[in-house]
Amino acid sequence: MSDEDKSPEEVEALRTRVLEEQREVLEMIKEEEERLKRRKALEKELKRLV
Amino acid sequence: MAKRYLPRNLQLSMLMKLFDKLNPEVGLDLIDWESYVTEKTYSENLEDLAKAYPFYNWESPLTPPPTTYDEYALDALREEVETFGGVIVPEYHYSRLKSVQERLQKLKKELKHAKTRSEMSEARLTAQIKESKKEIERLRAPKPRPTYGDAVGSLETYLKNVKKIRGVY
After folding, report:
1. Could you report the predicted ipTM of this complex, rounded to two decimals?
2. B48/chain A closest Cα distance in angstroms
3. Which pLDDT band, with edges at 50, 70 and 90, does B96 fall under?
4. B79 and B41 in one domain?
5. Which of A37, B39, B127, B142 is deepest in the core (most CB within 10 A)?
6. Domain that holds residue B38
7. Are residues B39 and B72 in the same domain?
8. Contact assignment for A25 to B81 by CB distance below 8 Å
């Protein structure tokens, strides 16, 4: 199906969904960054102990 | 993609071999294999075991999982996803939007997987720190001084031994 077959409403609806998913992925990246920081701190602490 | 189920006995043997290789100093009997290795996929069973016993190693350090990100990978990912914001504009066509959506959905799946891995590593590290601290405390604790009773007991044993030796010679 080509792009011309899609109505402006359909394109707009998809755009809204994509933006929403983009926000979700950015949030997930942020959370992963936090987890990485925590993991690094734990690794450092463990290294200090052993 | 359809899940791949290996026979349970085969999984048990593979998981035991893996555990033995990664934790050579720990006996296999410390793990309740029967309860945690069930009719699931190999990776699901491995995940269950790692969650149940986070203080043991379940991942080979030589082959890091591909979905664990470091700072550089996360930076690159953020850059890629932020770029989509600049191109998701009204002029954008349906098919291009669809491909961006597919890429985002794939990333969501990978990040979800990475979350599980990170949480498992965090739990394992926390448990290792706890164990190390406990061990340090145990080593630092002053050894109990022998009591009078201990000394008498030792003396009695000593005398008995002396008598035995004299009896022999």
Report:
1. 0.88
2. 20
3. confident
4. no
5. B127
6. 1-60
7. no
8. yes
